[in-house]
Batch of 2 targets.
Target 1
Amino acid sequence: MNQYPKWKYGLVLIAIFIGLIYSVPNFFGESPAVQIMPTKASDKLDLSILATIESTLKEASLPFDGIIQEPNGIKVKFSNPDGQVKAKDALQNALGGNYVIALNLVSKSPTWLSKIGAIPMYLGLDLRGGVHFLLQVDMKAAAEKAAESYLNDFRMTLRKERISYIGASRLNEIVKLQFDSQEELEKAKKLIKVNYPDLMVNESPSGKDKALDIGMSEMGKKKIQEFALKQNLQTLHNRINELGVAEPIIQQQGLDRIVVQLPGVQDTAKAKEILGRTATLEIRLVDEDKTDIATLESAQKGNTPFGDDLFKDRDGRAILVKKNVLLTGDRITDAGPGVDQQSGRSVVHVTLDGRGSNIFKQVTRENVGKRLAILLIEKGQTEVVTAPVIQQEIGGGRVQISGMNSPQEATDISLLLRAGALAAPMQIIEERTVGPSMGEENIKRGIHSTLWGFAAISVMMIFYYMVFGGVSIFALGVNLLLLVALLSILQATLTLPGLAAIALALGMAIDANVLINERIREELRNGNTPQASIHAGYDRAFDTILDSNVTTLIAGLALFMFGTGPIKGFAVVHVLGILTSMFSAILVSRALVNILYGYRRKIDKLSIGQIYRPHQD
């Protein structure tokens, strides 16, 4: 007799039950929703705004299907996109700049499933819709920015070591230091070579003065470019995390490009604005000696005084600031919107790191009574946000930036500064938008192809192997169920290649059942009893099934380890499909065969199709 111990039947039943529970949420679809999050990802959501949200939607006559509370935000579900868009505008006006309001999609599955962790798998851009960006990193700007940073470091280092110099300037990627004596030049040359081994230091004639030309080696340029790409990748990760996008794809493409895919994002204009902006801060001193009208008018005509840059403030007034950058946005550790208690206007509160705090404290101590210009650099345009007079030394690393036009601007600038400055500007060179309807069409086609393939396999197996073919199809259905459940439990991202991998997994999984059925037929041809044939068929087919699946598993693991993007997604589904197919083909089908035939002591015939016995002479 062929019987499993009871615990094996229990294991199969538990696996099928878990598969049902965790795969069901994927079939409910998604609802349009409005997502409300604090402007700072580290802040906890004040749940008292629930009443504000409900009253706002009620006053605007916007019915909603439910409110989902999450650790980092709230999602309000709507029955149609029209109500979703109207609700976003109403909530934005009601909640102000302290919250990020974005359009999103949420699952329609029941709340009780979510409470036990049964949530749908993530869908990729091609299935869910969203936006795809290809960004080009400006490597030349990265090298120039690094040279500007070196220029500021050289000034501070030479002052600290009491090495006198008469000029420091930068031309593209070359920093020039001028000295009035050869002795001071040699001291500086030795100091820079020791502290900056990646730089090339050369003496160059500069009239009667002595000068050093300091540039980056090829190795140094390569390091800076690699750093710029990594920094931009990290900054994009931070910005997208602030937007609350689930499972974004942010990866390097080539030497100077970055691919960004945001599945489910409907507010593409907002996403493009946040990703494309390159906001950072610079703090410089206003040139107090050149504030007269004549000098400013001359500067506006193109005659900018040496050592100064001409910018305009938010009221359009021209201001001359010194070229020397005292502090940059790289020293910012946190930023958040706020309100000035005296004026009531929107401001941005900035926190500096230890070194930035010390620099700012020294600058304010040495320049009491002078004006400090805070510059916002965005999309290559520099604007003086505010230029207050330094009243006293400011310590503690807390800086308030006033001059914001609206709470929303304060919120956006805070997000950009908090997420980090880009190491180099980026330009969006390709943009593709996949609408939810197109993603839904891709899902339908993928499901239809899988179902048609399943149906074709079912007809062939039942026709050829009769009852044993039906057992194989049941095991194949369990395989599909477990595969979908595993993808949901692991929260894997399913893409079109992943759907192709599911269809392929079904085709490969049936091979194991074909091997088992043919082994049973072979035992019957050799004159064994039906019970002995079933036992021998499963036992002798196991080694072959294991060998074939292990070799395929190795190929899938190689694709996962060395592939990227869609290839990796295909590999994940492929590998999981192999594991579930072995479980279903060996355990599930054997359990069902044992139930059908295992309890019978005498069986005259197995319903496994036509068996041709060898010809006897």
Target 2
Amino acid sequence: MASRYHEVYDGWKRDPEKFWADAAEAIDWYSPYDKVFDDDAGVYGRWFTGATCNTCYNAVDRHVAGGRADQIALIHDSAITGTIKKFTYAELKREVVALTSVLKNRGIRKGDRVIIYMPMVAEAAFAMLACARIGAVHSVVFGGFASHELATRIDDAKPKLIISASCGLEPGRVVAYKPLLDKAIEISRHKPDGCLILQRDQLRCELREHFDIDYADAVARERAAGANVDCVPVLATDPLYIIYTSGTTGQPKGIVRDNGGHMVALKWTMENEFGVKPGEVFWAASDVGWVVGHSYIVYGPLLHGCTSVLFEGKPIGTPDAGTYWRVISEHGVVALFTAPTAFRAIKGQDPKGEFIPKYDLSKFRTLFLAGERADPETIKWAEQKLNVPVVDHWWQTETGSPMTINPAGLGLLPVKYGSPGVPMPGYDIRVLDDAGHEVPRGTLGNVVVKLPLPAGCLPTLWNADQRFRQAYLDEFPGFYKTADAGMVDEDGYLYVMARTDDIINVAGHRLSTGAMEEVLSAHPDVAECAVIGIADTMKGQVPLGFVVLNAGVSRETGVIESEVVGLVRERIGPVAAFKTVVTIKRLPKTRSGKILRGTMQKIADKEEWTMPATIDDPLILDEITAALKERGIGV
């Protein structure tokens, strides 16, 4: 079908208020808004001022009342424990209401904060929805995060209660959460009133008297008593949640998400951007601790009346590189959203895609990739093996939903490899030089969004309006700074080349490490790669490449490395000064799959570095250090 994208985007540009007013009709409101957008409210304006609503009502209750009571709302698929649990919308409502009653009995009221420190279990979603039901503000902290990181979030959000579990599960190991939680509370200045603990059979924990409450017991009591808690109306501009993202100063930034604009934006994206209809099965293979989990495991699919998959497992090793295809086949998934890292891991383990034909993927229509740059080779591999459109897209924790995408629901546009698509309604994306002037099409610069930001984006940082201005608005007045570098081509497609700090300066030439990584990943033996800039006395900086080879590759690494260097010289040119590639067993990553390039660079440059709180496996950094030393780098 011909894409309606240009017509819809132009319609938004002509009349933004009408666009968002139309989109808001898909949400049930208790009372209407005074203004669609009030530019005098908040830091840069607020959406749907004066309206009252409730996010839990829109995600759960209205579906139960509207004919979806017996439809599956949530599937908890744990590849690690080998268990699957399904909840209809009616059962979801029962679980959420019982938990809400527990919270209410513990004195939680509208505006109070609750930290959720949970593994990938259905109860994490229940907890988010229970907070939303009474207007409490939840802050989900990735389960297993280090005590210090959790403590900084406790001190910033000042929660009355923490909801946690005895443990989380990783392939081959159990992560005890309770000692981490106890230590965090001990070192934090703010003390919560208590903790609600979900005991998991894999590792139970001691509960402290008069402080820790057994989640299952407390919820069962409320359920047995027939507890009923109605949804509490909140203002559209009231906060739904706070999600913390790493701050450059070490103090995490509390991104605030409102209730009204968030619902309107997410509901619109499900059909128009992801091309998914109510009643269909949508799977975001992420974690509830990250923004993708908030937007597309919990809120987006449920607001839209879909069935959402909450998956506890990994793309490989639980038990093999076919686990994603098993989930898609078993649950009839129509669209999967995951990080490119996951697909690089699958491709590295199963380069020929031999697991794919073992499963029935007949319902599967679209693969969506986001979270970091999706290199063209990975996209092409997925297209070829799965025979479905592969849609790269780009957004941030701050925005809550895609800024650019190739919109499946409006009709796909031609694919341009290396581009995460075109701007979505609400996003007037520009590229500026460092002085704030627009650069010509095709020129690399700072990617910014013209204010106001659309519905669903952060209105500010938690209790930190001034920090919000400094971090995002001050550098380019009238624009939101994404801190990404990129360019827009003559057809309006965006190319995000790197975070602005991943642009390296080689003898006065500004070069993108992302463009070099694209070349490295094009080598047939390379499963994953990273390029960093390291200090050089002559040129200021020179690039250094790291490659992880595909499973089963037996060729000499030195030969592969010189082929990779030759490829960069051929495709980017001698200007890149690309001479060194180091073969390693694995790349250091955060638990959400982002490569820790900054830490690798510090090791190579012999700078002081601290262990990143979000690292998946600290031992990898020792392997990197040893591999660099062998080459005389970082010694």
